[in-house]
Amino acid sequence: xxxxxxxxxxxxxxxxxxIDTETTGLxxxxxxxxxxxxxxxxxxxxxxxxxxxxxxxxxKRITEEAQxxxxxxxxxxxxxxSFETQWSQMAEYLNDQLIVIHNASYDWPILxxxxxxxxxxxPEIQGVFCSQKAAIPWAQAMNLPCSQRGxxxxxxxxxxxxxxxxxxxxxxxxxxxxxxxxxxxxxxLRQYGVALNYKS
Length: 200
Hints:
5 strands; single chain; alpha/beta; 41% helix
């Protein structure tokens, strides 16, 4: 049903990367939060080829709410390497890639803020695709719960029968596993859209 609402997913290239961040909290009067972990999943020929996670030492303190979400304490984060010393490795993954993010309006500005703040250079990319925003029309037509940002990763994973990686960790978020989860959801939505195109 509603195959036309999944068109954006069927247009994705076979190769792209998915990123996710865990942060010190939400944006506030002091600006955007700091990245605590950055997860990158490489999708090659529509399958997960690699997943990595960079743990970065934040300059801001992690709020209690954020700690309850990702389970990383300020004491643990203080031992992580700085963002700028790891950027060259991160940038290699981003270079000349289409970047898929579930909730891009949150993660992408935070990443750009770090690049600017530390005087670093962003590599050339093909663009940013928000899988959460792209899924809104289909999710609404299917009467799935949606926030203003769109359907959650958990909601889509459950409806699509995608392996619940986060659930196996007691619901604790992680940048690496969330980027993997987002890649699997994205590919199922793509396959679902393509398959439905042949059933019209």
